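Hi everyone, sorry if this is the wrong subforum. Our group has a chain we'd like a structural model of before ordering constructs, and none of us has done structure prediction before. Sequence below.
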Amino acid sequence: MTGFLLPALELMVILPGILLAYLPMKGYLRLPLAKLAAATVALTLSLCLAGGAVSFFFHAGTLRLLFPAAAVMGFFYVHTLKITRWKSVSVFLAICGAFSCLGSTAVAVTGAAPLSLRGVLLWLLMCCLSVPAVWHPATHAARRLLEDESFAQTWYVFWILPILFTGLNLLLLPEDPDILGLGRLRRLYLLLSLAFLLLLLLFYALFYLMASSLNRNDRLRRENQLLSMQQARYDSLRVTIGQIRQARHDMRHHFHILQGFAAQENWVRLAAYLDEVQGGIPEGDLGLCENATVDSVAGYFAMFFRERGVPVTFSLDLPPQLPVAESDVCSVLSNLLENAMEAGMGTAPERRRTNVQARIHSGHMVLLSVENAYDGEVREKDGILLSSKRPGEGVGLQSVRHTAEKNGGYSRFHYGDGIFTANVILRAGHKNERGK
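Answer:
Right subforum, don't worry. Here is the predicted structure as tokens:
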């Protein structure tokens, strides 16, 4: 009976681990909380019972069962969340790394490898106690980091830490159960296990500080960029207003000359003068959108589109107050317009065109659409559009996808026949909806 109970109890550490992994993910669940809890408990119990049966009938070591069981649970965890895979996988691996250190500590305390019933219960108890111990940082600090709209580059390398420490714990796990009874090896192994645990937690804290700092710097960079856009838009509007005032001042003079040509029936001179006057009409746009912040971004890029000879039209039906964060709308619009401008500059002049549309839908969603012509090849892998300038997914499109999906929106990209279309839906967050 022990051959069935021990592996089943040892696999039970998955339950506090998966609970801990879900704590910072409150706003990213794909299923209702009750259904998710029922599915998680049912899957965990099934894995534990199946692992106990396999170990009992086939005499398989629990360590060999723990990894496939954790992989199944990790697959389930990742696919029940609406969040970037890098973040969900990193959180799951972080808990695996910490629990592996707790397992080594249980081995050192009981002096039994593999774990005896006493060691398994101790490991399970420590894992369960870790949940309330880190409840507050998981639901506050970690959640704030995950909900940050910026995507710190440290997420791309964080997975190395838990995998490294898990590997070290496995490497130091005694193969001979009696070796821990020799001399001071048991105390040394206990100190080493605790040192690994403390060092891992220290690295997690450093990662949090680094990621928070990078996200804060990125927010400041985007705020400065928006201020620069607003200043450029203000300068452009001031120049346009000056030109319109001058044009209004000269209008009477122009009409007087045109009336003279018409009275003389000198149609050739009249047409030539009209062409000359038409060339002096200001091209600046006074208002592309009622929302001042979005208008700043649109006007900033409209100026660059004109300078680079890429025709662009805007239809931005957005009110002064948006249901979603203005920073999200401006971030998505900036990335899409930047990509469209780069594509337009690489397209034959006679085919260049860009159409930009935005409107409110159902009172709590912003619909954005950018359509542009392109020449060349669009690279795609596994449904993900790749960057034309560097390996991997384009940073701009990745940012668009992350911003759209963080509150339940979506982004879709279509291309073909030389036309690339980006459709994005931004939904109001839970705070915005409650505020209404």
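For your construct planning: The beta strands are 312-317, 354-361, 365-373, 380-381, 384-385, 410-416, 419-427. Confidence is low (pLDDT under 50) at residues 430-436.
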